[in-house]
Structures are given as C-alpha cells and as structure tokens.
Amino acid sequence: MVKKVVNKKKILEHIFDRVAPGTALREAIDKIQEAKLGALIVLGNPNNLKDVMGGGFELNTVYSPQKVYELSKMDGGIILSEDIKTIYGANIQLQPNYSIETDESGTRHQAAHRIAQQKGNLVVAVSERRNKITIYYGKFRYLLNEIGDLLTKSSQAITALEKYSLAIEKNHVNLSILEFDNMVTLYDIVECVRMYGLLFRMSEELIEYMAELGSEGRLIKIQYEEIMLNKNESFDALIKDYKISNETAEKIGLRVKSLTKEELLDDEKIVCLLGFDTNIINLDEKIEPRGYGLLSNITKISKKDREILVKEFSNVQSILMSTASDIAKIKGVSKYKAEHINKSLKRIKNRAVIDRE
Question: If residue 199 lies in a helix (H) or strand (E), which one and from where to where?
Fold first, then answer.
C-alpha cells in the first residue's frame, strides 16, 4: 500500500518534487501538452493496482520523457514507479470503484480522481481539451498553475515581502532608539511582531510558488533568500526580549506564524501570545527589553554568550552601562571578548544617536 502523506504542506512538497519544472516527469507532461494530447499517469507498483487494472501491456522499461510522450498517444493509462525511473505498463484500462464520489466531468479525470481515492496513489491527469494538469493524491486535488501566472504571482509576493521587510527594518531602528531611551511601549512591540507575522505569511505563500516553479524559480529563490536573511533569528530575539509568557520563544513564534491576516491586525491577539493580560496592562505601558536584540547586533559572540550576558545583566540599560571589566568578570567571557563586546556596544550607541537625528 502507498504510504500516505497527510499534512497539506507535505502533500504539496511530495507533488512538486515529482511534477515541478525541471523534473523528469514534468518534461514528459510538457511534451504531452505541447502536442495537445491527454494522459492519465499513475505512480505506484502495479502489484498493488491489479484490482483496478485491465488490458494494456507490460513494459518494465527504463523511464524517459520521450517514451511517456509516445505512450500517451494511446488511450489507456500509464503506470510509472514512484521514483519515476521505470515505466511498468501502458494502454491500461483503469477500472476504479465507480461508487466512489467524484465531481469531475471528463472520463479521464473521473478515473484519476477515483483511483487516487481508492488506492492512495499519486495520479496525474493531463486534459486534452482544457490543456490543464490536475494532480490527485488520495482525496487531495491540485490544479497546476501556468508558469507565466506563477511568475506573476511570485513577483507580486516578492514586492509584498520587500515592503514588510522594510517596515521591519524601520521598526527595529525605532526600537533601538527607544531601547536606549528606555521608552519602549507594548504598542511598539505589537507593531513589530505584526510586521513579522505578515512577512512570514507572505513567505509561506511564496515558498509554495517556488516549489511549484521548480527550476523556473531560481531567480525568485535568490531574491527570497536575500530578503529573508536572518529574519527568523531577529524575530526570535524580539520575542525573547519582550515575552513574559513561560512558553518558549520558538513556540510563541510558531503561533504568531499561524495567525491569519485578520488575527494579526488584532492587537489583543498578539499581546496575549506574548503573555500579557490586556485587563491589567495597556498598549501605552512601558516595557523593558532583556537585551537579546541588542546583543544580536554584535558579531563574533555565540548564542551561549548572549544567554550568559542577558542572565548577568537582565536588561538593555544594564548591558549598555557595563564596562569591559564588568563583562570580563563574567564566567566564560574572556578579556578579549569583553573588550570586543564593549567596543561594539559603543558603536551601536553612536549609530543610535545618528539614527535619532
């Protein structure tokens, strides 16, 4: 029996790994589409499909896109191995259980939909009339997008991602100034968390587009990676700085990422995730950062070093007032590293003064 993938994200990964542009199977599908032919392709072991197969002929030959294209000129289904390395058979009459419900109209698509539900295999139906590619996997159905449409959607998503990234950078500059002045309010944090949430939501959408684009999405992927560089780390530092919940920053971060756009626009949702009680605290209340964000701007210190410093000094103001000798007294911090941290903090202070002006 075919091993089922249940999570939607995992299902799409499973599908795109096999049919995205640049894959061996997609090459065959593209040839079939270009010739305005139709096809029904089932991935799986024929021994597990015997009860739904009839007629046709056995091949057991090495896969090639050209072979599949030629075989698609016949009416029946084509059976391929799941790793797309073997063509098991062709011109096969697929006879699923007709009591299985389907809302598909064409004979080929009805058979594909029923086979996928009955046997759990991944089935590809290429429409001769509509020139569309539909993927069925169990009860899951996905209509592949046109490459041109995907590139347009990806470009729009990149523009939105850049907008959120710039907003996050501005928020961090503002936060740095407020942290030095000890004037950070809960409202400032909510705004910054919201922008991260919107960024990650758009990121998920773009990841799906890139997966479907396959080799056609190389340039989009480069842009995406550039925009998203260190975003997870800076978000984690923000949560660690301001959460009062006992939950880990990682768990809180995952919950923020799972919020809908409407929920992200709700201040109270974000406030509650950070652990604050809206009945006790208001958005204008001042809150003190622990220093994770500040210390993340210092190069050549490890995550462990940051944890040691935050534990020792507790908050940003204490870190900023510390001297090199204060830092060197901490167990695990060398004199050289203490001087480096102290000099880096001075540079960060100077930059904050410039930003303020």
Answer: helix 186-213
| Structure token digits, residue 207 | 């990841």
Within 10 angstroms of residue 20's Cβ, the number of other Cβ atoms is: 19
String of DSSP letters for 45-108 = -GGGSGGGEES-EEEEEE--HHHHHHHTTSSSEEEE-TTS-EEEEEEEEE---TTS-----SHH
- The confidence score (pLDDT) of residue 309 equals 95
> What DSSP designation does 357 have?
-
Closest CA to 336 of 303, 315, 305: 305
> Are residues 98 and 156 located together in one domain of the fold?
no
For residue 234, the domain's CATH number is 1.20.1260.110
* Residues found in the chain: 357
As for how many domains the chain has, the answer is 2
User: 142 CB contacts (<8 Å, ≥6 apart)?
Assistant: 12, 15, 134, 135
* Of 116, 144, 172, the domain-final residue: 144
Residue 56 domain boundaries: 1-144
DSSP letter, residue 6: -
pLDDT at 2: 47
Shared-domain flag, residues 129 and 191: no
Q: What is the pLDDT of residues 18-72, one digit of tens each?
A: 999 999 999 999 999 999 999 999 999 999 999 999 999 999 999 999 999 999 9
CA distance 270 to 259: 9
CATH number at residue 88: 3.40.1700.10
333 and 186 both lie in a single domain: yes
Residues 155, 76 share a domain: no
Closest CA to 235 of 204, 272, 194: 194
Cα distance between residue 145 and residue 160, in whole Å: 20
pTM of the model: 0.86
